[in-house]
Design a protein that fits this description.
The protein has 282 residues and is α+β, with helices and mostly antiparallel strands. The protein folds into two domains: 6-99, Aminopeptidase (3-Layer(aba) Sandwich); 104-278, Gcn5-related N-acetyltransferase (GNAT) (Aminopeptidase). The protein has helices at residues 38-49, 63-68, 104-116, 140-150, 161-170, 214-228, 243-251, and strands at residues 6-9, 15-19, 24-29, 53-59, 72-81, 85-93, 130-134, 172-179, 182-192, 197-205, 233-239, 255-266, 269-278. Helix 6 (214-228) links the parallel strand 10 (197-205) and strand 11.
């Protein structure tokens, strides 16, 4: 079984994920305690472990400290923290090759396709004969099988039913599409209630059922739930190489926030990721 990167809480209270699987340090949650020392602490960790990149998700107020330490802004999400403070997605490269994209032309072409579909909504002729619902704990085995079939690799162990159950009991809502009672597509909302934002993620559709707008319908379902719970910001980190996923978010009016270069181990390799965001009530 593949060993995924581990979560670690630093002495200052900040939460990171790091390891060789994604070959990076990912600052998932930054605290204000010792904020001025945090960039250097992350660089030291990456250097000691031989990682190629640091990916930091931080509040705007910390931006100067990270920039001074050599971090570059790759994406930005307005109002990420409770609708009042922006988030910066910052990068620090310890391996120069990690900062170079071999597929940049393809990524730009996909962005043109996505932006041409912006605000086009859900195709009414598609999705007939499918039902949509929130997943239950009894679904985790079927969910894991779908993720195993769709992704050769993933930054978190969604291929494992125990992980799905643990996250479902914590702060992740999973949703599925079914055809005649059989699960054929999935997505999830990772809920950060303290910051009033949700990450729309873990989209997977079995190959046989692609082309039915299941991803965009699941996204719409999750957005409606976010509106019901008064969430201020929803966002995603989507594969830059996936035309379908980028078009999905563009169709429902998401804004492009930037691209994270060679950021994530997904579908069998390290790939660049696009950040999309919106305020769900708008």
């Amino acid at each position: 079984m593949t060993k995924h990167d581990r979560l670690e809480t630093l002495p200052c209270g900040s939460l990171v994920q790091h390891g060789q699987y994604n070959d990076r340090v990912y600052l998932m949650k930054a605290t204000d305690a010792a904020a001025a020392k945090l960039p250097k602490r992350l660089i030291g960790l990456a250097q000691n472990q031989g990682y190629g990149k640091i990916f930091a998700k931080i509040p705007l107020r910390m931006g100067k400290e990270f920039e001074t330490s050599g971090f570059l802004q790759e994406a930005r999400v307005p109002g990420f923290f409770n609708g009042s403070e922006d988030a910066l997605f910052m990068a620090y490269y310890l391996d120069d090759l990690r900062a170079k994209e071999s597929e940049s032309v393809n990524y730009e072409n996909i962005m043109k396709l996505a932006k041409a579909k912006r605000n086009s909504g859900i195709a009414t002729a598609k999705g007939a004969g499918f039902s949509f619902r929130r997943c239950q704990e009894s679904d985790v085995s079927a969910m894991a099988k779908i993720y195993q079939k769709v992704f050769a690799s993933y930054p978190f162990p969604i291929h494992e039913s125990d992980y799905l159950l643990e996250t479902m009991r914590d702060a992740v809502d999973y949703f599925c599409a079914e055809k005649e009672g059989v699960m054929v597509a999935l997505a999830s909302a990772e809920k950060y209630q303290q910051d009033s934002n949700w990450e729309m993620t873990d989209f997977a559709t079995l190959p046989k059922w692609r082309g039915h707008s299941l991803g965009v319908r699941l996204l719409d379902l999750m957005e409606n739930e976010a509106v019901r719970q008064n969430v201020k910001t929803v966002y995603t980190i989507a594969r830059a190489a996936s035309a379908g996923m980028n078009i999905t978010f563009a169709r429902l009016g998401y804004h492009f926030g930037g691209r994270l270069k060679n950021n994530t181990n997904i579908s069998g390799q390290i790939e660049s990721m696009n950040v999309w965001y919106k305020s769900p009530e708008k």
